[in-house]
Every structure is written in C-alpha cells, then in structure tokens.
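ok so I'm stuck.
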Amino acid sequence: MPGSITPMVHVPDVRAAADWYRDLGFVLTGFNNVDGVWSWARLTMGDGAVMFGTGGLPSLAHRREVDLYVGVDEGLDALFEDLKDRVDVFQPPHDTEYGMREFIIRDLNRFWITFGQPIAG
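replied:
not stuck anymore, here's the structure
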C-alpha cells in the first residue's frame, strides 16, 4: 500500500514557484533543468511535499483547482506576523467551527495556502 501522496501543481514558471515557496521556508529537494528552464521541482516542509510542473496558467479566479494545507503544531499567529507583509493575505488568523485556527494566503499563481493549527482544548 502506498505511504504518501504528493500534489503536483502545474504552474507557468516552475523556478519562480520554487523560489517563492523557498522564501516561505520550504526546502527544495529536487528539480529538472533543461537548457536553463525548470520543468519540475519538488519542495518539502516538515513531513509534507509539493511538486511543481510546467503547463499551468495564471488565474484571476476567486479560488483555484488545488489548495495546499500546511499543518502547524504551534506558533500559527507568530508565523502569520512573519509572513503577512511578504505575501498576499486572503484571510488573517481566525478560529474555525471544526477546531482549527487558520490563515489563508495566495501564492504567486493565486493558489490558496492555508496554515492551520489545532485549537487547544
């Protein structure tokens, strides 16, 4: 039985996406570079990973086809304070009815990234 799932997000510029995610703290673990153009990249954060491939289009849609969800054990509000002036904030930190404290940002291609931490108690 497979042990993990890693989303593949298609973007207009793989290297730009990888650089943007690295600025957030993701770690680049692999990429393909053909004649100076990146066609694929894999980045990790904690136990999670995301891959980027060519062929995606930019979008002005309210929401994209894929959202990324990053679980945080602690320090969600401090993380938001660190990121808020460097990213496009869609929703600031808020508590949800399903027991999470979350904030949502948009990446350079307007995909949502939600950071979520369980509410204590």
